[in-house]
TrEMBL record:
This is Translocator protein BipD. GO terms for cellular component: extracellular region. Its main location: secreted. Signal peptide: none annotated.
Amino acid sequence: MNMHVDMGRALAGLDCPALERLAKTMSVDAGVRATTDDNLRAAGVDRRVPEQKLDAAIDEFASIRLPEQIDGEFVEGRRADLTVFDDARVAVRGHALAQRNLLERLETELLGGTLDTAGSGGGIQPDQILQQLVDVIAQGKSDVDAYATIVEGLTKYFQSVADVMSKLQDYISAKDDKNMKIDGGKIKALIQQVIDNLPKMQLPKGADIARWRKELGDAVSISDSGVVTINPDKLIKMRDSLPPDGTVWDTARYQAWNTAFSGQKDNIQNDVQTLVEKYSHQNSNFDNLVKVLSGAISTLTDTAKSYLQI
């Protein structure tokens, strides 16, 4: 295959399917894969760690249950272990730092080595592929930073909602075996506090705003200056469904409210789940990008050495 042509196509606009194909089929495949795996391990880039932590946070959120009455018996709800969300944020940030460090290593050590091999007087000028490597590394850093910032912010939001859902247990009780008492005003105040303190995330300078709006969908809004704000609509629906303090509902009415209220909680969970899936896809793209960058740099270095031997 024409390595330079295929690299150019794959690197142009970070064509993810092309990157994946090229990562699997490039002529230095065996050596590149071994080198890339070593680099990933040495740099601490293991996508399984943050993804497993995020999955654990989603499972913890899903396990939260509100109190209810079953056959006249009051059944307490289940609270969340909020430390699970802290663990996920730490893992995401650590993984992003390792990814960025690896890109910088490729840029300074390997890409720099390509230029050194050619030499300033070697007659080889940086070509289009080399410039694409420089550009795509910069784009890779931007994407790593953006996704880490957004996923961290969404996880913090997720944790805040989990905290509220856990505290709800303190404001819902059984009046008797047929009725439930709910202090809706106090719960409203908790939800409003989350709405008033939603995380705001800033995309990296120069980020393609239109691309990120398409990537992240309706779960967030993105200003023209790149400020990412979480859409509060689901929280507002939860807040507005609540009655005043001291309200007593029969079990049927309470169950109907609980179903609708918990449905909005599930919608929030779905938003986060969708983002986590996109984050996983981004990590896969990163792995393929590293393989292609390593192969491209190896190819350019070999080309420069061959030129100097002529």
